[in-house]
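Integrase: structure tokens wanted.
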Amino acid sequence: MRATNRLSAKSVTSLAPGKYNDGAGLWLHKRDDGGGQWVLRVTVHGRRREMGLGSIADVSLKSAREAAEKWRDLARRDLDPIKERAKAKRAAHGNLQTLKDIAQDAFESRKAELKGDGLAGQWFSPLQLHILPKLGALPVSEIDQKEIRNTLAPIWHSKAETARKALNRLSICLKHAAALGLDVDLQATDKARALLGKSRHKATNIPAMPWQEVPAFYASLSDGSVTHLALRLLILTGVRSAPLRFLHEDQIDDDVWTIPAEAMKGRKDATVDFRVPLSAEAMAVIAEARRQARGGFLFPSVKRGVISDMTMAMLMTRAGHKARPHGFRSSLRDWLAEATDAPHEVAETILGHAVGGAVERAYRRTDYLEQRRALLARWAKHVTGGTGAIFSIVLKEGAA
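Answer:
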């Protein structure tokens, strides 16, 4: 039997620098500065492992021997003590990991996939507003379907889409926690959905202004302010609010505005930039906006950053309109359907919609730029008080 307990408490502090065997694989490594480290040597599956047990300043000889026996027992059962200790630490740490910590880590890891690195807050805000205030301080291991049900029940029917997004984001957070090795119930969100039941909320379309009324509204946007100019360009181009609000001078080349692929919502071909042809009226609006640009952004807010969608919406509300800025896309689409015979694929492309299946899009080599230019020029003529008469767009094979 190997000799054990070779060292004494007194010798631990008085020994010269070097390596000293206490027996049964427990070693003391003394340093030149008088400090030292306890190290346990064990053999697992025929491979020697060295495991640190702490410094002599923190761990006494007695405690080192007790710890060594604990880990030797695992080695005798063919378990790697280093891996088992790491696993125990992860489990202990996991019980202390709150949902708030996990949610923030999940958000950080996904920023590169999100529009503008997630700075607009659309990914994180459902969690921040509706989940974290009630569940954020809980360890993720304690979150179950009942906790989730009780959290989302107040908005499940009244704010169905928001609740759905919050639940989906929470599901992502739980999967993120599981990937970190934490003990979570990955089915909790599905169970909560079953407990909450089917939502009674009926989706409603965003209020839109009839295309016949757009010219009068456009004419009212005449004071040259950032908000008026932004709404004018929004109407003229038919783009969504976010790309317009973050419009940067670098995106404009002559009479074409190129929206980066990552800024295009809902595009399946998200690696392709989207070109917007600019009418003469749109170019005039841009020229005026450039005089108020800040940091290259054409529509800056008063304090910092860019104008918000709420700013434009509030202007319309104060003017007595129920329609919202996003609704001008519907106004344009209705005009295309009722006042032109624009082909479906051209009309949809104007709005930045992906048209056709994946195979069809892969073989299509045109974005109908010139056809869209003609239509948007006529739309500009309509909204500035000109005619909205029907005209024809003829598709040419291979036109670009």
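The first strand starts at residue 18 and ends at 23. The chain has three domains: 9-95, 97-196, 211-383.

Cheers.
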